[in-house]
Amino acid sequence: MTLDYEKLWKDVLSEVELNISKANFSTWFKDTYIGKYDNGEVAIHVPNSFAHEWLSTKFNKLIAGIIRNMDSSIRHIDYIIVSQPKNQAKQTTIQQNKPLKTILSNEEQLGFNEFYTDSESNLNPKYTFDSFIVAPFNEVAHAAALTISKNIGNVYNPLFVYGGVGLGKTHLLQAIGNEIRKNNQNTKVHYLTSENFANDYVSSIQNKNINIFKEKYRKYSLLIIDDIQFFSDKLKIQEEFFHVFNSLYNSGNQIVFSSDRPPQYIVGLEDRLRSRFEGGMMVDISQPEYEERLAILKAKINTKGFPLSDEIIEFTASNIKENIRELEGALNSIIGQSKIRGRMLSLEEVEKIISKKAKPVRAITAEQLIKTISIYYNIEEKNLTEKTRRKEIVKPRQITMYLLRNDLSTSYPHIGRRLGQKDHTTAIHAFKKISEDIKRDKKLEQEINNIREMMFKNCV
After folding, report:
1. Per-residue pLDDT tens for 32-47?
2. Which one of 141, 363, 435, 454 has the largest count of C-beta atoms within 10 Å of its C-beta?
3. How far, in whole angstroms, is CA 391 from its chain's centroid?
């Protein structure tokens, strides 16, 4: 599909303006336009070398993503310096203009490598187990995914991976598919989002080819559906997927899901689907702790081959806490700014970059939480890891587990290891118990709020 030059660029600029500051938009996107748009290629004309540098490095990924959302056939983008007026430039071809031209190499086409997908499987080949960084917050999910890739359909079926946005669920799910395809190209694998499935279903109804739709999804040896929570309240789609699930499962084919929450918390999900999701292997990916964020940053820095000082790495890990996606985004901003300026950034300059992404505060760590609880209940920190059933220890230990999970989003396996447990079932039990107890025990609720207040005062 090819759109009108001016309309396409106008739509792109509208999206760009929503994603960057007004100052950046007016400075770098003024007097830009599309000079070529055909055969899957777009040439964006810019007025000077400064605009060229910023659009081709700092904003290339943003532009590429927006353009491809508008026209999925586009696979390449050039940035070309053209100093003559727009109207005059449009009268001649790019070749006749003889512009000063720098075309990004394939390796530098970050935006399109990011969005490339295999047409048959819908998998992005960049998502592999080799590029997935394993840490305590995601190691159980990684182990389950790796096991499935070696024994498809025979273990952990279905696999249900849940966790917040930007924590690597999509990467992990697609890594399963890519690993299986690598080992056997003939294996029928397909990845899609729940929204894609819903749209496909609606389209089949409108076009009166529902039977083709049904056969399509029953032929796969591995079906991966991302963001299954969007099936919520879509009863007709849930009914159709229920039959797809049963057909695949009864044929011994593998099914893998992701969601931002466990099945029991997906409102509007039919019980029969919920029971099938819960009947397999459910694993969560929680937010990474400070030490894990530090390790992730160092691993990504090694991959990018652009060294940063420990001071900058530690500051970034301390202040970007929400998810891995934001962490990598901050890292890319730091590296991009360094390359543009031709030097390493100072800590003060990095602080300005990070301040736009997160409010700098001292990270609350598991160690600080444990120390606060031991002070509050007048016990020694080592008491919390002892294997004892003494009431004066059991309660603080359960509260510790609850707060590690609820406030710090620590994974259950990590909580278990931190507090000297053989497995993570104790942590799960403690979290559920305290969650229920505080609903009816106002004194307990006040104790926990007091602990939180102490903890945050010490971390301001």
Report:
1. 999 888 888 899 999 8
2. 141
3. 41
Q: How many CA atoms lie within 13 A of 216 on its CB side?
A: 16
Q: H helices of 55-168, where? A: 60-70, 86-89, 94-97, 110-115, 139-150
CA 446 from chain centre, in angstroms, equals 35
φ/ψ of 118, rounded to 5, equals: -70, 130
CB 207 within 8 A of CB 241: no
Strand, helix or coil at 87? Answer: helix
How much is the CA Rg of the chain, to the nearest whole Å?
A: 26
> Which two three-digit tokens encode residue 355?
């301040």
The DSSP letter of residue 163 is: E
Q: Tokens for 250?
A: 């009864």
Average pLDDT over residues 320-348: 86
pLDDT at position 164 = 83
Label residue 93 exposed, middle or buried (CB < 10 Å: 0-12, 13-18, 19+).
exposed
Determine contact, residues 67/14, Cβ cutoff 8 Å. Answer: no
CA distances from 53 to 94, 104, 108, 334, 367 (A): 19, 11, 13, 16, 45
What 3-state class would DSSP assign to 265?
Answer: helix
Q: How far apart are CA 127 and CA 324, in angstroms?
A: 14
Give the chain's length.
460
Where is 426: in which H helix or E strand? helix 425-440
Any long-range contacts for 329-336 (C-beta under 8 Å, 24+ apart)? Answer: 329/357, 330/354, 330/357, 331/297, 331/300, 331/301, 331/304, 332/61, 333/357, 334/308, 335/304, 335/306, 335/308, 336/57, 336/58
pLDDT by residue (tens digit) across 271-294? 999 999 999 999 988 888 887 888
DSSP 414: H
Is residue 443 helix, strand or coil?
Answer: helix
Contacts of 250 (CB under 8 A, 6+ apart): none
Cα 128 → chain centroid: 14
CA distance 181 to 178: 5
**SS3 for 91?**
coil
Q: Starting at the edge strand that comes first in sequence, how are the strands of the sheet with 33-38 ordered?
A: 33-38, 41-46, 76-81, 100-102
Give me the amino acid identity at 140: V
